[in-house]
Task: inverse folding
């Protein structure tokens, strides 16, 4: 994770998913929650995904992360980042975090709450917005609702991390003080491995629960970055536990195939990847799910949906699209699979130079030395960048237009 934004986002390394650009202060949140491999984690307000992806990295793509987001446009940005970085233990859902279903509990829950954003003002020239009293009332109600639901869906002994990017005590210490009074949680003293200040116990005559001193405040001068407030809470034991352990199905909910049909089709597809594309043991640890006529790969170890019989939510995506099928039902590795596992797909690969990749990404063919027609991996400067196809006209790129345009920009940065 790298401080940004900046020119790094226009590099091939960024395009390939080797880095994620975010503020340095933001990078403290996932380690503060400290998810461990194999755990079940919920991010109640996940887009655009920086903290979610950081947690997936800490968990080594094991266990299960549910990334929930209310805004449909922001969900598209979240999915783009998940697919670009290739983290496969993430289930994306749409819905208001305040209404998140309570049928299953998580080991750790992140509440990256919407806020007045005072800690990000430098990105907009330092001018503070004029926030109305009605906005403050709305945002603090939302923050309280999110934190209350987070506590409800955390297992006894589990951890909740409440985070904002603002300095306003009304949105920080006041919210945590109310939680300590009204909810079954205790605050844990949070020592970050970077410069920071303690939580406020009093502000302009208003006193907060003295325990909120254990929260952490990062001001812009601490890291020459944005501001952040973090409070880590432990869920008290109420004698209940609703953890989820259901197996992940082979067909996405509402799919047209039966489980038996999906398994049969998947077996043929994987055999095609092995014999035609040289896929070896690198794919053996993946699990597969059919959705929308495609096979998606993932590394989730459990499935919370059977426990969700209430709440306004919708399952959007699990894992990453891995196998497409042509009109004759033949398996074709997706662009994401080729890019993420290209070094292990040794059967059909073509190397192109700078001039050829520019031509291909401009949607024009180049001469192909490969005699066999059909899908093929395109490798440029030693990196497999996506899928192409050998046709009667030559080699063509099948990299999506938007992604192709981004890669072109990385070749000729401004």
Result:
């Amino acid at each position: 994770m790298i401080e940004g934004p900046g020119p790094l986002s226009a590099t091939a390394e960024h395009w390939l998913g080797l880095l994620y650009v975010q503020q340095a202060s933001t990078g403290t949140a996932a380690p503060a929650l400290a998810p461990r491999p194999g755990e079940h984690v919920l991010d109640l307000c996940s887009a655009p995904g920086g903290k979610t992806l950081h947690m997936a990295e800490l968990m080594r793509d094991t266990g299960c992360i549910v990334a929930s987001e209310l805004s449909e446009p922001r969900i598209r940005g979240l999915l783009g980042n998940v697919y670009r970085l290739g983290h496969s233990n993430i289930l994306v859902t749409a819905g208001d975090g305040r209404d998140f279903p309570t049928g299953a509990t998580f080991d750790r829950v992140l509440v990256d709450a919407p806020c007045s954003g005072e800690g990000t003002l430098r990105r907009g020239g330092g001018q503070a917005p004029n926030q109305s009293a009605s906005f403050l009332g709305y945002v603090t109600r939302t923050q309280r609702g999110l934190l209350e639901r987070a506590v409800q869906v955390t297992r006894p002994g589990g951890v909740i991390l409440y985070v904002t990017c603002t300095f306003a005590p009304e949105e920080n210490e006041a919210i945590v003080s109310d939680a300590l009074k009204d909810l079954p949680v205790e605050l844990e003293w949070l020592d970050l491995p970077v410069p920071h200040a303690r939580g406020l116990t009093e502000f302009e005559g208003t006193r907060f629960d003295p325990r909120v001193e254990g929260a952490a405040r990062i001001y812009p001068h601490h890291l020459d970055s944005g501001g952040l407030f973090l409070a880590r809470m432990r869920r008290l034991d109420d004698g209940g536990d609703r953890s989820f352990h259901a197996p992940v199905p082979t067909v996405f909910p509402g799919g047209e195939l039966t489980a038996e049909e999906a398994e049969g089709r998947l077996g043929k597809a994987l055999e095609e990847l092995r014999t035609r594309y040289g896929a070896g043991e690198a794919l053996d640890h993946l699990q597969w799910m059919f959705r929308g006529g495609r096979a998606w790969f993932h590394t989730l170890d459990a499935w919370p949906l059977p426990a969700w019989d209430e709440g306004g939510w919708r399952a959007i995506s699990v894992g990453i699209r891995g196998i497409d099928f042509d009109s004759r039902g033949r398996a074709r590795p997706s662009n994401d699979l080729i890019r993420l596992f290209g070094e292990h797909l040794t059967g059909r690969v073509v190397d192109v130079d700078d001039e050829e990749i520019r031509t291909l990404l401009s949607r024009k063919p180049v001469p192909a030395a490969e005699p066999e027609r059909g899908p093929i991996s395109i490798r440029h400067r030693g990196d497999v960048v996506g899928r192409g196809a050998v046709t009667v006209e030559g080699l063509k790129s099948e990299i999506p237009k938007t992604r192709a345009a981004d890669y072109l920009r990385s070749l000729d940065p401004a």
Remarks:
- Residues 1-5 have pLDDT under 50 and may be disordered.
